[in-house]
Amino acid sequence: MYGSDRIADDLERTTFRKAEKKYKLYYDNDSKSSKNRKKRPKHVDLSEVLDFKLILDSYNQTGDLPAGIAAFQFGFDRPVFSLETRPGFYFIPGALSIEEQCLWIEESLTNFPQPPNRTNHNAIYGPIHDLFTAATESKILVEDENIRPSLDSGSDVNNGDAHKWNFYEKDVASSRGKTFKSISAPALLRKLRWSTLGLQFDWSNRNYNISLPHNKIPDALCLLAKKLAAPAMPTGEEFHPEAAIVNYFGSGDSLGGHLDDMEADWSKPIVSMSLGCKAIFLLGGKCREEPPLAMFLRSGDVVLMAGEARECFHGVPRIFTDEENAEIAALESHFLQDNDLLEYITTSRININIRQVF
Fold first, then answer.
1. Pick from 73, 26, 23, 25: nearest CA to 50
2. What is the DSSP letter of 27?
3. DSSP character for 260?
4. pTM (2 decimals)?
5. I need a labelling partner for 252 at 20 to 30 A (CA). Which of 13, 24, 146, 321 fits?
6. Helix H segments across 24-119?
């Protein structure tokens, strides 16, 4: 026990952890003193955060680049940037069109969490069908301990006999009283943290379990991933998308520093697509004591990590959901006809990480 405490203490003191704390969302103490007073985020010094949007604008105008950053063309309508200190890391600002961003946001919410794909909810509730639709209809997920509703009983049955959790209309759920455990679908949607596509990652054993049933990665996403991965691929080789992890972030959420080290061949990149609210991404070194570089990730940006970059700790300590910093005006315009998607994405970020496993 003491050894574990000491390890936790050591992690708190690492250079990477200090950077995470620097950029994490905190609120001013006095903003919490009144229930009617809106929370006010603490000021964060963002002067050292790399901004590839500004770098791209400057490069297009003058051809100049900051020290340590290189640019090259690779058949895209914009340059690909790399960092001299992080071989194998590539940044493609605004790589996805607004139409592509909207498509993959909708897919990430409506189709990617569908069984047999797994989400963080499986451990408690089992497979959940049509979560986004249930959330838009304000349904309630109820634990049925004694009965299993039939298909015509007004409920959405999850996995037949295998699970006891089912969606009900709010009035039906209320009539069941307090006998059964329940949670609202909108709350479940906000608690959605990840879903997996293609080969399923077993979080308990930290490996890919090829025996688990899964939906194939959509062909359109595979083609896009192959195109985006090309700058980071070994000469003459093609990227084979076999698995993807979709991360969902809300206000105050973060992703701690980690390595993606479960794939067989690290020369193949992870293709990481950012959607929704702007975030800060930390790219460290091969140990947590190396000072990380901080950079903004905006909706439509794509990051590639291959080779040595696969050995670098990285994480997301902050997303920006306030109107001034979220930078999603273009997405809001496109989702004006869909209030449910608009409501979600104005306070959220989605990250799709596509991998070649073998």
1. 23
2. B
3. -
4. 0.90
5. 13
6. 52-62, 98-110
